[in-house]
Amino acid sequence: LNKFLENKLFKSFLMDSIEYSINTYDNLFDFKNYIDGFQLYGKYTRRDVCRILNWEQNYESTVYGYKIHRDEAPLFVTYKKSGDISLTTQYNDHFINENEFAWESKARRRLDSNDVIAIRDSATTGLKVSLFIQKSNDEGKDFYYMGKVTPIKDSLTQEYKTNDKDEEVPVVHMKFLLQNTVPEALYKYLTSEKQELS
C-alpha cells in the first residue's frame, strides 16, 4: 500500500473517496434512527442483515421470506410480487396504513407451527422481529429497513391458498404494529405504481 501512496494521483483519488464517504455518513447518520446496527429506512441486502446481526454464517440463500435464528427474526417482503412466481409464494403482504402491516407466513404453516408461535409470542419472549421491504424485484437485492414490528394481539387467522397443483395449502395471516410510522414519501412510493422515491 505504501508504494501506491507514493503515487500522487492515486493518493488524491483515495483521499477524495475517503472524504466523500465520511461526509456521506455524517449527512445520513442520525443516532435516533439507529436501531441495533441498522439505520431506519436504510437499504440492506439479506447478506448485510446476516452480517449486521452477527450470525455465524451467511444465511442469505435461506432467508427468503423470513428466518428465525437466535433472538432475531428478520422478515423480507417484496411488495409488488412478480407474476411468474409460484402461487404459494404470492404472499398477501401489504400496508394497512403507515403504522400497520398485514403479513402472511410461509406456506404449509398453521396457527400451532413453531415459527408462527415464535413470531406471535415475540413481544413476551424477547424475539426481535424486524421488517425489511423492497418495492419489487426491479430494485435488485436491497430492502428498506422499516424497523421493529410487534404482532397485533388476536390478529392471527388460519388461511388457505391454492398452489400450482391446484391443492389447498395452509398459511397464517397476521398483522403487525410498526414501532415507527413510515414517512409519507416512502409509504407512497412502496404502495403506489410510481417507480421512483421522491
Describe the structure.
- By secondary structure, this protein is an alpha+beta fold.
- The chain has 6 helices and 10 strands; from the N terminus they run H-H-E-E-E-H-E-E-E-H-H-E-E-E-E-H.
- The strands form 2 sheets. Strands 3, 4, 5, 6, 7, 8, 9 and 10 form an 8-stranded mixed beta sheet that branches.
- The protein starts with a helix and ends in a 7-residue tail after the last helix.
Spell out the key features of this protein.
26% helix, two-stranded antiparallel sheet, 198 residues, 28% strand, alpha+beta, eight-stranded mixed sheet, elongated, 10 strands
Number of helices: 6
Largest sheet: 8 strands, mixed
Count of DSSP strands: 10
> What oligomeric state best describes the polypeptide chains here?
single chain
Unreliable stretches: none
End-to-end Cα distance, whole Å, is: 41 Å
Helical residue percent band: 25-40%
- Which structural class is indicated by helix and strand composition? alpha+beta
* Helix and strand sequence: HHEEEHEEEHHEEEEH
Strand-residue fraction?
Answer: 25-35%
What's the alpha carbon Rg, rounded to whole Å? Answer: 20 Å
Overall pLDDT confidence: 91
Q: What coarse outline follows from CA principal-axis ratios?
A: elongated
Question: How would you briefly describe this protein structure?
Answer:
This protein has six helices and ten strands; from the N terminus they run H-H-E-E-E-H-E-E-E-H-H-E-E-E-E-H. With 198 residues, it is an alpha+beta fold.
